[in-house]
Amino acid sequence: MNKIRITPSVIPNLFTAMNMFSGFLSIIYTAKGGTENFHIAALCIVLAAIFDTLDGAMARLTHSSSEIGVELDSLSDVISFGAAPAFLIYSTYFNDFNPIGLGILFASLPMIAGGFRLARFNVQLVGFEKSSFKGLPIPASGMALAAFILAFYEKDFPQQLVVFILPLVLILSYLMVSTIKYDTFPKFSLKAIKEKPLYPFIILVSLISYAFFQDITKVFFFFFVLLISLGILRHIFNFFKMKSSNKKRTQSV
Questions:
Q1: What is the number of other CB atoms lying within 10 angstroms of the CB of residue 125?
Q2: What residues pair up with 133 in beta bridges, in sequence order?
Q3: Per-residue pLDDT tens for 5-45?
Q4: What local confidence, expressed as pLDDT, does residue 241 receive?
Q5: Percent of the chain, pLDDT > 90?
Q6: Nearest alpha-carbon partner for 91 in 34, 140, 36, 44
Q7: 181-183 and 132-134 as β-strands: parallel, antiparallel, unpaired?
Q8: What is the 3-state secondary structure (H, E, C) of the chain?
């Protein structure tokens, strides 16, 4: 009788499965409808992000990173941070905004762009350790949409915020397939924080903003807005810096 052999990779893969399950659970609660269920669906996306963080940490801890783990993680992310947020924003804001199927089209963009972003990431991945991402990571996009629902969705006047959610969806979708650089979140060490000081700054500003909003869900949303905006601003700064450097080099020749 063959013994069942449990390898170290089972631990991170279990967290990846919980990520996937949380995304599925989010879809179920969204399908039920109602403000409370929509908020639970958004919280399930947040829970998926926690499991997504833990699976990577467990893979490093157990030295069990693998190509299968990378592929499984990407498949989970498409569900939890692509399909689940897309269905959630369709059900909350875009279900009535539907001339010629435009509501369905706009709601699907984060899922489609996220799928392309993950495919590009897997093809270009060299090794299992990464210090930065090309394009906005799909978990950040999914979390931003979930945070928006938690902070602003209300049963009595949901459609008033379509003017904000539509640009948000378009911007997030573009950023995922763009080449804008986003750093990985630093590990909890003094050295890592010194190497990436922007993240502690973003967290500090978010905590200070709580004094103004008195609502942790709004602080949560604006944390992601700040995180995403800084990536764009750094990209613009580097673009003009490189342009200026090339101009000086041309003049000196």
A1: 12
A2: 182
A3: 656 667 788 888 999 999 999 999 999 998 899 999 999 99
A4: 77
A5: 35
A6: 34
A7: antiparallel
A8: CCCCCCCCCHHHHHHHHHHHHHHHHHHHHHHHCCHHHHHHHHHHHHHHHHHHHHHHHHHHHHCCCCHHHHHHHHHHHHHHHHHHHHHHHHHHHHCCCCHHHHHHHHHHHHHHHHHHHHHHHHHHCCCCCCCEEECCCHHHHHHHHHHHHHHHCCCCCHHHHHHHHHHHHHHHHHHHHCCCEEECCCCCCHHHHHHCCHHHHHHHHHHHHHHHHCCHHHHHHHHHHHHHHHHHHHHHHHHHHHHHHHHHHHHHC
Q: Cα 178 to the chain's mean position, in Å? A: 14
Could you tell me the CA-to-CA distances from 8 to 5, 19, 66 in Å, in that order?
10, 18, 11
CA atoms within 13 A on the CB side of 147: 20
Whole-angstrom Cα distance, residue 114 to residue 173? Answer: 7
Sequence-distant (≥ 6) Cβ neighbours of residue 125 within 8 angstroms: 70
What are 16's two structure tokens? 């990846």
Here the tokens at position 75 are 């498949």
Single out the residue of 111, 108, 47 nearest to residue 75, CA to CA.
111
Which amino acid is present at 24? F
The CA distance from 47 to 77, in Å, is: 12
